[in-house]
Specification:
Helix content is about 35%, strand content about 25%. It folds into 2 domains: about 5-155, Immunoglobulin-like (Sandwich); about 180-409, Aminopeptidase, CATH 3.40.630. It has helices spanning about 5-15, 140-145, 200-215, 235-245, 280-295, 305-335, 370-375, 380-409; strands at about 30-35, 40-45, 45-55, 60-65, 70-75, 80, 95-105, 105-115, 115-125, 130-140, 180-185, 195, 200, 220-225, 250-255, 265-270, 340-345, 360-365. Helix 3 packs across helix 8 and helix 6 packs across helix 8 (about 380-409). It has 8 helices and 18 strands. The strands form 5 sheets. Strands 14-11-15-18-16-17 form a 6-stranded mixed β-sheet, sandwiched between helices. It is elongated and about 70 Å long. A hairpin with a 2-residue loop joins strand 7 and strand 8.
Length: about 400
């Protein structure tokens, strides 16, 4: 049986009821879990195979993507607790593995392959325990490209793009609350940086919630978060969320880690076509690569005309973002210093590319630095950091409104 026919048959069995929908009636928990020690990637002839056992059967799909070559497995939904990517790989054909929550109700496993491999078989057996088995064999680049792509299936839909966007808001003039969109970096399948059992994604979500409360207490801001839980949100969708909220300003929150050097301290970034130092370049690569690994490729060039229009829009928003970054550096230095050796930098972060919204990215510190890690885990330090960001936004809003008044004249 071909892999496509086999896969369709399995999904049909799941949804017509041969695999029970009601887990409780069968003694199952709400989420399927990976059986400890069962997950492996190992050689199979000239190719390799993926296996893992689950506590209960779930709907799934398997497909490949190009640039880089990836095997993607979507599940509905799997609890990955206790499963680490490094425990999978026993094959020289796989360079990297990512796993985690994709969107509510769905999980994703991604294997980055070192060449083109075709799916030979993909099946979920109904034994005790149920077991997923995927076998891949070498393929020509042409055959691999022809067979690759995300399947169109209503069962595995990602959130729809934001539609019916509100009309563009006039630049804030100090006569209404400032709409601030906070973007906790990473999430779901992309945990971000990790050190000593601390993951960047939940840490930034916690800080974003704390910062939201600080901002709301002023009565001067309306605040929207791009994610409210541990889910994967594509970088471009984060911009769409901000646009739908009528954002006056967009702030992406991160706390990364670097393998080399002793980088420490907070840094504020604005958009640039090129990174302003080596650390910025590495961080931009890391942040954007998460989307690529999860199966979302942001590398396409802008349409020429659209690019010209976006550049025109940035002539107004980029100086405003630069001004906000300067206020943030000053306030963070006053409240939580020391800052990074060059606290005001620029990089080609995709998440900052909305042309119509002043956008900045704050690296609150580096999880790879013991002092920064201690700070980020400190409720008192995070409270001072939130106050610093609040003060910077308040000062920026006043200056920005005054500048808008001068422009109107």
């Amino acid at each position: 049986m071909s892999s496509v026919i086999r896969l369709v048959a399995i999904l049909s069995l799941v949804f017509i009821g041969i695999f029970p929908r009601d887990g409780a009636a069968q003694g199952f928990s709400a989420l399927a879990r990976v059986v400890p020690g069962s997950a492996a990637v190992a050689p199979r002839g000239d190719g390799f195979g993926l296996t893992l056992a689950l506590t209960q059967p779930v709907p799934f799909r398997v497909f490949t993507l190009t640039d880089p070559a990836r095997l993607v497995v979507d599940f509905g939904e799997v609890d990955w607790t206790g499963v680490a990517p490094e425990t999978f790989n026993l094959s020289s054909h796989v360079d990297a593995i990512s796993l985690g929550r994709l969107v509510p109700g769905w999980s994703r496993l991604v294997l980055v392959m070192n060449g083109p491999f075709a799916i030979e078989t993909a099946e979920l057996t109904t034994g005790q325990p149920p077991r997923l088995d995927v076998v891949l064999s070498p393929a020509t680049p042409q055959d691999f490209a022809a067979a690759s792509g995300t399947p169109d299936s209503a069962l595995f839909r990602l959130p729809d793009p934001v539609t019916n966007l509100p009309p563009a808001r006039l630049r804030q003039q100090g006569d209404r609350p400032i709409v601030v969109v906070l973007d906790p970096g990473h999430g779901g399948i992309d945990p971000g940086a990790s050190r000593n059992g601390v993951d960047e994604a939940p840490l930034m979500l916690r800080f974003a919630r704390e910062l939201r409360e600080v901002l709301l207490r002023t009565g001067r801001f309306d605040v929207v978060l791009t994610r409210e839980s541990d889910i994967f949100v594509p970088l471009e969708r984060r911009q769409s969320i901000a646009r739908a909220a009528g954002a006056d300003v967009f702030i992406s929150l991160h706390a990364d880690a670097l393998a080399e050097g002793q980088a420490r301290g907070a840094t504020v970034y604005t958009l640039s076509d090129t990174a302003s130092d080596l650390a910025s370049e590495k961080l931009a690569e890391r942040h954007d690569r998460a989307d690529l690994l999860a199966g979302l490729d942001l590398s396409a060039e802008d349409d020429r005309i659209a690019g010209i229009l976006m550049d025109l829009a940035r002539t107004e928003t980029q100086p405003r973002a630069d001004a906000l970054a300067d206020y943030l550096v000053g306030a963070l230095g006053a409240h939580v210093g020391p800052l990074y050796k060059r606290p005001r930098l620029s990089a080609a972060f995709s998440v900052l590319k909305a042309p119509d919204i002043p956008s900045v990215l704050i690296e609150l510190g580096f999880l790879s630095n013991p002092g920064d890690l201690e700070n980020l885990l400190s409720e008192d330090w995070r409270a001072r950091a939130a106050i610093a960001i609040r003060d910077a936004l308040l000062a920026w809003a006043v200056a920005d409104a005054a500048e808008a008044a001068l422009i109107r004249q």
